[in-house]
Amino acid sequence: MKDFTILTVNPGSTGTKIGVVQGEEIILDLNVDTLPGEFDGCATFGEQAPLRKQKIMKMLAENDIDLTTIDAVSGRGVGVYSCAGGTYLIDELAYDHAYHDAANIHHAATLGIVLSKQIADDLNVPAYFVNPMSTDELSDEARMTGVKGLYRPSHAHPLNMKQVAIHHSKRMGKRYEECNYVIMHMGGGTSIGAHRKGRAIDQTRIGDGQGPISPNRAGDLCIDDVMTLIQRGMTIDEVNKLATRTGGLMSLVGTDDVRKIRNEMIPAGDKMAKLALDAMEYTMVKWASMMAGALWGDVDAILMTGGLANDKELVAQLKDDLSWIAPIYVYPGSFETEALASGAIRVLSGEEEAKRYSGRPVWEGFDFE
Question: With contact defined as beta carbons under 8 Å apart, do 67 and 85 qualify?
Answer without folding.
Answer: no
